[in-house]
Amino acid sequence: MRIVPPPSAKAREASEVLAPKTDNSGKEDRLEEEKVAPQIIWLQSEVDADKAAGQNLKDAATLPRPLIFLPVSDNPDNDTLFFSALRTALWPDKFISLPTIDLSAVAKSAKPYFALRILADHQPIFFPARTDQLNLSWARQQAQRLRRLPDQTGFILSTSGSTKPGGRLVGISLAALHASHQATAQRLGGTGIWVSALPRDHIAGFQVIARAYAGGTEPVTIDMTGGFKLSRLREALQSISPTNSPVYLSLVPTQLRRALADPETLAILRVCSAILVGGARISPSLLAAGREQGLSLVTTYGMTETCGGCIYDGIPLPGVKVAVNEDRIWLSTPTLMNGYLEAESDSELREISGTTWLVTNDAGKIVFEDKDAGEATGVTIDSSTPAHLEVLGRLDETIISGGENISLPLVMRAAEEAGFVGIEFCGLPDDEWGQILCAVFSESLLSKSNLTPENLNPIHLGSQLRAALRGTLPPSHLPRAVVLLPYFPMLPSGKLDRLSLQESARVLDSPNRTWRK
Prior knowledge:
CATH architecture of the largest domain: 3-Layer(aba) Sandwich
Number of helices: 15
Mean pLDDT: 86
Largest sheet: 7 strands, mixed
Shape: globular
Distance between the termini: 54 Å
CATH topology of the largest domain: Rossmann fold
């Protein structure tokens, strides 16, 4: 890909309406509040550059395309362009271009909307980006990461970065977003009012807005300035006028845990026809507690590469197929990405008998409703199959200690079944074993449990945990270290920041602050 000028005066004018020319380099500190200017970078494929300079200008694949960086903040009032872009692209009246509009005759407040319409002929690509990082130099850096830009790509989102710092750039089409909305509406029982309580630059929060617009409704958003607050969630839910439309909400497990602990929030959450819970693994105890309180909780499994959740409560959405091959989850779905845009090809995508599969990095098993059928591998299920997918965790969540492979998700499930809350696991370097299994406890979560203050120390927690797991797990899988953190480090997407967790445990790994067996 190469960066090129706008292809016409009309395109340049529309670009400058959306992203006024300013010299931001080195002057980001002068930007007031969160009013960061959008950035527009025109891109053209290197392969098609010669064609575009010649006679084949009518071929859409040879034309430059605007990559529009949409500022996304915690305050929805500051993100007008983000909402306008998604509404224009996804609302049922479609993205109709208006190339003959004279922007000079358009009222100031309407200019961005009509500028977007003018750029429709150039197949714009939208890239939601946090205001605290968006400036011209950062935008150019992201554009230069791209190696391809399929015609169908309408949006670029970054993966969360939970295992790869900075994440990967994923291309998503309008068709995939519409397919996701339709499948979700079919599973949940119809189009409804979506409430946004997640960061909008990651797939889960982005999809709340996209599903609303694709269904022809306005999303209800909350101000996340200063972090997620239960009071703001309550205000948003209470602001919804009584209608016959169902109310849908997406949360991550951390938010759900906080909501369950607050009676006032718990009461208002019961107005939701469905609360999607994803972004991280939800413990069985938390899920059961929410459902016992009358909440309609729906667990979701998916990723940026599949436009978010494509499996609800272990059952594929309509049109989605799941297979487990050698313990690895494979997905085939109409919501599949166009690819990772930083590479010429995707080794994660496999074409088999005319069907495209995404080979994930997650382990899983298929469990049939007929208990006598047991579990299976190497088979495919869809929404009509009497079976469900059980996600076991990431395949790379394994450490090697003394030559033994230790699955962190396996130990996590055993600990949860033994009644431990506020716990995660990682590996710590060790001279004798190479790595040892370390249990990391969250002091903020433990303080809400029944443990007495004198028991909130690594020595007690370590001996208690090992005793509880002994007999359930082999000796090699019993933790040999315990670290107590004030709280778990989280990514903006709501997922656990595993890299920071491991680094925090390593930093605290000293005789005075870590228990070692």
